[in-house]
Amino acid sequence: MEKKITDIGGTWPLANGVQIPYLGLGVWQADEGAEVVQAVKWALEAGYRHIDTAAVYKNEAGVGQAIRESGVPREEVFVTSKVWNTEQGYDSTLRAFDESMRLLELDVLDLYLIHWPVPGKFRDTWRALEKLYADGRVRAIGVSNFLQHHLEELLPVAKVKPMVNQLEFHPWLVQPELQAYCRQHDIQYQAWSPLMQGKVFEQDVVNELAAKYGKSPAQVLVRWDLQRGVVTIPKSVKQNHIISNADVFDFELSADELAYIDSLDRHQRLGPDPDVFPK
Ligand SMILES: NC(=O)c1ccc[n+]([C@@H]2O[C@H](COP(=O)([O-])OP(=O)(O)OC[C@H]3O[C@@H](n4cnc5c(N)ncnc54)[C@H](OP(=O)(O)O)[C@@H]3O)[C@@H](O)[C@H]2O)c1
After folding, report:
1. Mutate to test the pocket of ligand 1, among 193, 222, 243, 275 (most ligand atoms within 8 A of CB)
2. Is residue 25 part of a domain?
């Protein structure tokens, strides 16, 4: 079923009915303090309603502060955080969640993810996420950087299926089989490094499409994500980028153009391989 794309505040339903805004702000490498606070405030002011952080980004306190100071009602903002690799396991994940919530100063989190599939641990980590979900402390739970074989190990033992899988996704790493597998299991695909960590400008095809539509290469890729049904979280700490990255609702890529971008796939990662993830 095609997913409807309307405007910056638009949402898609997750498997449990919770609505996820399909466009969010990523804050990896946004410094804790003034930088992240300002970036999140600019994003909320521009109409973003989804912020993606993680314990390991060490900026959860700033994210929470910005939301409180923004004047946007808490319930209108979708906040994601993630349990880091060293904290995985049942009890340690529960403690890590409490610490994230202490820093964010939130009562309920919108989405909590397992950051990477730590072998031998991610199943216990998942049980902890299921408990947090059952206790009403988080509205949706999911994973990140899980390849099909990780999901095949998790799904048979999961009482609650992951609602999201957040993965590296851009024209050099399209992984159509993994996308299809997630779709089949009603797991929302979410893109990290959607702007290729800045390398977006090196893509001739993307530059050509940008020129054709009078948009920026970053806007073309954000639009490609959304038309592919992928939730996307471009990162920026610059106000002009934050505003322009979300200005993608006045043009539409054709089916051929979407396929043309897909065809740039090189199976090439910019970040770590999930089978050899950061320790
Ligand atoms: N789950 C995971 O393992 C994982 C891993 C990596 C990332 N993530 C999440 O995904 C988010 C996005 O990924 P990312 O941060 O790796 O990379 P990205 O969004 O692909 O690219 C961010 C880079 O592009 C620049 N940029 C942003 N907008 C631009 C524009 N319009 N024109 C030119 N340059 C622009 C940013 O610089 P400025 O800030 O100077 O604009 C920054 O250097 C992260 O912030 C994080 O929330 C998750």
Report:
1. 193
2. yes
